[in-house]
Amino acid sequence: MSSPGTPDDRIAPSRPGFRRTRHGAAALILFCAVVGISACVGEASRTSPPATSPDGSESAGPSAEAFERIFAGRRTLNAGETINVPLTFEGASAAMLSLYAPTGSLTARIGQMTLLETPIGNGFSTYDAELTDPIDGDLMITNGSTSAVDVDATASTATGRQLVVSVPPTGIAGQPFTVEIKLSNAADGETPSVVLVDDANVTTPVAISASGPGTWVGTVTPPRQGGFRVAATIGGDQPRSAVDLIDVASPDGSFGL
Questions:
Q1: Which residues contact 91 (CB under 8 A, 6 or more apart)?
Q2: Could you tell me the pLDDT band of residue 126, with boundaries at 50, 70 and 90?
Q3: Given the DSSP bridges, would you call strands 113-114 and 149-159 parallel, antiparallel or unpaired?
Q4: Alpha carbon distance 120, 35 (integer Å)
Q5: What distance in Å separates the CA atoms of residue 78 and residue 45, rounded to the nearest whole number?
Q6: Of 65, 29, 66, 64, whose CA–CA distance to 50 is shortest?
Q7: Taking the mean position of all CA atoms in its chain, how far away is CA 195?
Q8: Which domains does the chain have, with CATH numbers?
Q9: What does the alpha-carbon distance between residue 160 and residue 92 come to, in Å, rounded to a whole number?
Q10: Whether the Cβ atoms of residue 192 and residue 204 lie closer than 8 Å to each other
Q11: For 162-239, where are the E strands, in sequence order?
Q12: Lowest-confidence segment of 13-17, 42-46, 115-119, 238-242 by average pLDDT
């Protein structure tokens, strides 16, 4: 099952100046693993510590808020180019911003806070900031290098509104499998869009129906052997996206090389 607010490889809401991206590159997977943000497949969502009673023991209470990805995109910046990406933090108590680009290529800030560069090897860096009580505003990104660079950007907020996709870990080509979607704090009338995506980024819509408040189920049939992902998105003022992965075997049950 996917972690709330996670994936690599899921379809993300757009922002002006960025194209929609599925984050399929191996380099971005490395980026996610190093940064440890919740927007990465296989990484548990970062949550606040459990509530404690005066004696120091954990006390019962509502589930902790997780860092949920509210924006992800990729943009090519020309040498010397600056862009402003408007971000809305939904009144959250905390947020995380992360960029991934060649080492030494960028400067970025939001308000008075400058994102901190951390080289991660192979000529690439992350540029990160953790915000407390963030104020809505523009993330300003400047390419200070002498050549064009690709920039991957993510923003996550601490929130109880979490979208989760669940599929079986394995399947058989030509046989349907069940998809389950859950959205906490769902508003009336909200329904996620769901697609099956193959390793060539070819998408197939997945029909779902409500099975309860904030929950939906559907089935989809993978056409062939290979690695697939099921991606769900919610638009509107509080967009969310999530993904889960499934390995599909051939009809004889083999997965090949």
A1: none
A2: very high
A3: unpaired
A4: 9
A5: 34
A6: 64
A7: 15
A8: 1-41+65-160 (2.60.120.380), 163-249 (2.60.40.10)
A9: 10
A10: no
A11: 163-166, 170-172, 177-183, 193-197, 203-205, 208-212, 215-220, 226-234
A12: 42-46
Confidence of residue 188 (pLDDT cuts 50, 70, 90): confident
For the stretch 8-52, pLDDT in tens is 333 333 344 443 333 322 223 233 333 333 333 222 233 333 333
- Work out the end-to-end distance of the chain between its first and last CA atoms, rounded to an integer number of angstroms: 24
Please give the average per-residue pLDDT across 145-149, as a whole number: 96
> H-type helices in the chain, by residue range?
26-35
Do residues 247 and 170 make contact, with C-beta atoms less than 8 angstroms apart?
yes
Report the C-alpha gap between 4 and 23 in whole angstroms: 17
Neighbour count for residue 207 (Cβ, 10 Å):
10
Distance of alpha carbon 233 from alpha carbon 10, whole angstroms = 8
Looking at per-residue pLDDT, the higher value among 100 and 5 belongs to: 100
Task: List phi, psi (to 5°) of 227.
Answer: -95, 130
pLDDT at 189: 87
The DSSP secondary structure of 26-56, one letter per residue, reads: HHHHHHHHHHT-TTSTTPPPPBPPPPB-TTS
Residue that wins the pLDDT comparison between 33 and 90: 90
Give the number of other CB atoms < 10 A from CB of residue 179: 23
Report the C-alpha gap between 183 and 20 in whole angstroms.
Answer: 22
| Residue in 126, 153, 159, 152 with CA at minimum distance from that of residue 5 | 159
> pTM of the entire structure?
0.58
